[in-house]
Write a structure and sequence with these properties.
about 140 residues; about 5% helix; mainly beta; two-stranded antiparallel sheet; 10 strands; 1 helix; 6-stranded mixed barrel; globular
Length: about 140
């Protein structure tokens, strides 16, 4: 997808490799480069990729607010396994949203829930993800 951004930064953006797998049908998986967006909550994927992950449960159709304060609908689906390269795998849900590709590429997003569960934090100085050494209990 965004090979020029692979696991690094361009214009302050953090792009990281992510593998997403359908838990009920492990043959249905995708390997993508996704932008880290701490303003997003879930793993956000384009609706155009929904079939690539196979049959997932539709958990909810939710209203989402974009960065431009536009309201869009998204389909929360699961169960999936998500693994940010170099971090622990998690079991969660994804949100499919209608997106327009830019220069032929979609821009999936890794949100803060996925980051926290993966024990990943954003290094704002180095523009990269770093491992969280300890989980918070307070």
């Amino acid at each position: 997808m965004h090979s020029e951004y692979f696991k690094g930064e361009k214009m302050g953006r953090i792009i990281t490799p992510v593998k997403i797998k359908n838990l009920r049908d492990p043959d249905k998986s995708i390997h993508i480069d996704a932008m880290v967006d701490t303003g997003a909550s879930y793993m956000i994927l384009p609706s155009a990729w929904k079939e690539r992950l196979g049959d997932l449960d539709l958990i909810e159709i939710a209203e989402l607010e974009t960065a431009t304060q536009t309201t869009v609908k998204g389909e929360i689906c699961g169960p999936v396994q998500i693994q940010i390269e170099g971090f622990r795998r998690i079991y969660s849900e994804v949100v499919f949203v209608d997106m327009e590709p830019e220069n032929g590429n979609y821009e999936p997003l890794v949100g803060y829930i996925v980051l926290e569960l993966s024990h990943a934090a954003v290094d704002m100085v180095g523009h990269r993800l770093i491992r969280v050494k300890r989980m918070d209990l307070k």
